[in-house]
Specification:
Elements lengths: L4 E7 L6 H20 L6 E8 L2 H12 L4 E8 L9 H4 L6 E5 L13 H6 L2 H14 L5 E4 L5 H21 L2 E5 L13 H8 L2 E5 L1 H9 L3 H14 L1 E2 L4 H21 L3 E3 L14 H8 L3 E3 L4 H13 L7 E12 L2 E7 L14 E4 L12 E4 L5 E10 L4 E11 L12 E6 L3 H11 L4 E5 L4 H11 L2 E5 L5 H17 L1
Parallel strand pairs: 1-2, 1-3, 3-4, 4-5, 6-7, 6-9, 8-13, 9-10, 16-19
Antiparallel strand pairs: 11-12, 11-18, 12-17, 13-14, 15-16, 15-18, 16-17
């Protein structure tokens, strides 16, 4: 992640003479330095060129396409840049693209303004010409308008950078499936060929027996070292160290297999544990804490989305994790959804220090009680995201939520849990979610925003559905109907 960068390409032309171009070049370098020093950009911005010709633009796009460190291009037109010169570059651009519509000066200088000033400082003119050609070419893009020194503009640019990194992660993502999907479940299925063509994911299966073989080769010294990590990070609330050590063995083996294949996400199912004593609980949770994506019941789509959204969050592993709606609290004036899973909720969502417990798990083929992290989720605004296969296209559904401290202690529920208010309210939100076809598995994130997920879907060329505070069932039904018509034409 530390090598990832974004390229700043400024548009101009030869019409204004060499002195103007020297000023544009100097200011572009100054802006780049200041933006990098602001602390609001999570990745380095690199000033590449003030492009004045078709060839310069085509060359920098070609270079960006083949540079693995470059995660996207940010453009701005200090002067007027005739948009036809951008066509050859734009039609070949394969990296995310953001148009920063700004200007060097904050205000119009009353005493200084003359035609020389106007010719140099005409971003209002240049950015509109520049914007037209992207619209004409139907390019996926992000437009951010505002003064480049404003913190709000810089933070929006930083958020888009994280989205673009999510695109880069997606296009190279490998998912390791231990066994197949849970039997007879519809929403966890999907077209893996279409997903690889559209999103870049390589989704393949390894037999559980392969995992067991690697587990059997894990040494006691390796287990000791990982258990020490557990003790440093979590409270131990069980005397069953055998169960904790077994989870460590599972984690070490899964990590070895994923790292050997370059996989950053994995899925398993409680129905296929042949040769294993326990479903990986603590093991899966601690792997998610390190940035790996996970999906229960063989749900490889939510596994991949978890890895991507973690990469999009703060510090490359934000507070995002695998989640499932379990049950509702429907008391008037106190309507909440309770999210959890059998074992596997990421500790990045925790509002308190997680504790390791062991309990009986009466589902699946567990021979012994699995160890797992138990905690309450933290309070705050968040989103839940579901990617579904509609047959012929992918749909990304995003809902705004507000997480609360659980309103009851639930002392006999031995799993991690998060409680939230769904937008616009619980029952309308449920009706909208079901109408859109949202899955029971989601990624819950405190760090990634709905705007970022919209941008990600736009770049990837998939349908996006947002359920927020102003959403109605009738309005959503109309949107889905129009979406169906539009996607059938694509």
């Amino acid at each position: 992640m530390e090598n990832r960068e974004f390229w700043f390409v400024v548009g101009s032309q030869f019409l204004y003479g060499p002195e103007v171009l020297e000023i544009v070049d100097k200011r572009a370098a100054e802006m780049t330095e200041a933006l990098n020093a602001s602390g609001n950009l999570p990745y380095k911005l690199v000033y590449k060129v003030t492009a004045k010709t078709n060839q310069e633009i085509a060359d920098v796009v070609k270079e960006a396409n083949y540079n693995d460190n470059c995660c996207g291009i940010i453009t701005w037109c200090h002067t007027f840049s005739p948009s036809k010169m951008w066509i050859n570059g734009f039609v070949n651009l394969q990296k995310p693209y953001c148009h920063l519509a700004t200007q060097y000066n904050l205000e119009i200088p009353n005493e200084e303004i003359d035609m020389d000033f106007m010719n140099l400082n005409q971003a209002a003119h240049g950015d509109r010409e520049h914007g037209f050609i992207a619209a004409r070419l139907r390019m996926p893009r992000k437009v951010i308008a505002g003064y480049w020194k404003d913190e709000s503009v810089q933070k929006r640019l930083g958020a888009w950078m994280r989205t673009a990194v999510g695109v880069a992660v997606s296009r190279k993502l490998k998912v390791m499936r231990f066994g197949d999907n849970m039997r007879e479940v519809a929403v966890t299925e999907g077209d893996k060929v279409e997903v690889q063509a559209k999103l870049g994911w390589q989704v393949n299966t390894w037999a559980v027996g392969d995992l067991v073989k690697v587990m059997n080769a894990v040494t006691e010294e390796e287990i000791d070292a990982l258990v020490a990590e557990y003790k440093a990070s979590y409270d131990i609330a069980t005397d069953n160290m055998e169960a904790i050590r077994y989870q460590a063995k599972e984690e070490i083996a899964m990590k070895k297999m994923m790292d050997a294949e370059g996989c950053k996400a994995f899925a398993n199912t409680f129905q296929d544990l042949y040769g294993m004593e326990q479903l990986p609980g603590l093991a899966s949770q601690h792997l998610m804490a390190q940035g790996y994506g996970y999906g229960g019941e063989g749900d490889w789509k939510v596994s991949a989305m978890t890895a991507i959204m973690k990469a999009m969050g703060e510090n490359g592993n934000g507070a995002s994790g695998f989640m499932e709606d379990y049950t509702y609290h429907l008391v008037p004036g106190q309507q909440y959804s309770l999210g959890a899973h059998m074992l596997e909720v990421c500790p990045s969502l925790a509002g308190n220090k997680p504790r390791i417990e062991t309990h009986f798990l009466g589902i699946g083929m567990n021979e012994k009680d699995p160890a797992r992290l138990v905690f309450e989720g933290k309070e705050g605004d968040a989103i839940v995201v579901s990617l579904i296969d509609m047959g012929g296209r992918l749909r990304l559904i995003c809902q705004d939520i507000h997480c609360v401290k659980p309103i009851m202690p639930m002392p006999n529920l031995p799993v991690a849990r998060v409680m939230w208010e769904a937008m616009p309210n619980l029952t309308t939100g449920v009706e909208c979610w079901i109408t859109a076809g949202g899955a029971h598995h989601t990624v819950l994130s405190y760090d990634v925003t709905a705007e970022q997920m919209k941008d990600w879907a736009n770049i990837m060329g998939i349908e996006y559905v947002h359920i927020g505070k102003d959403t109605t069932v009738e309005g959503l039904e109309q949107q889905l109907f129009l979406n169906d018509l539009a996607w059938k034409l694509k």
